[in-house]
Automatic annotation (TrEMBL):
Family: Belongs to the TMEM170 family.
Pfam families in the cross-refs: Tmemb_170 (PF10190)
Protein name: Integral membrane protein
Membrane topology according to the record: Multi-pass membrane protein
Parts of the chain that traverse the membrane: 49-69, 81-110, 122-142
Localization terms from the record: Membrane
InterPro entries registered for this protein in UniProt: TMEM170A/B/YPR153W-like
Keywords of the record: Membrane, Transmembrane, Transmembrane helix
KW Ion transport (keyword) present: no
Keyword Transmembrane set for record: yes
Amino acid sequence: MVSANVRLHDPAPYDYATPPFPSLYWPIYVKPGVANYLYYASDIWRHTLLWTLIVYAVFHLAVAGFAVLMQLGKGKHAWQYVWIIPLFYALIAGVEALLAGSIVGLILGAVYNAGYFKMSTWIPFIWALINVLILTLSSFSFQGGL
């Protein structure tokens, strides 16, 4: 009698090697062998975390640059402490990206491993963009009422 509880131990191909970090490819008209996929939860988590750190850093430092530019007409006293703004924003970006990237990366890894799916290396990048868009959207105050 064959058991229905058969679990594949390693869904990755035999010659699989984890692709190096960015490993993004042009997804339209992909040639065979060019596409890169992630199979293990640790690789999915790592790619998602790194992309989230990069995207959060870019967005937070752009906002910090805008905040520094807003201090142009304030006089010399304002410029005395303006260097703190990018450092503070970078610290906040790192903490937020560490939390968001880890949570989303672990969830993605669990879901893809449970379904025996292979993940394109574009998916962690897209989820990093989704994370920063959710962060941006949640920064606005929405007041609703009837």
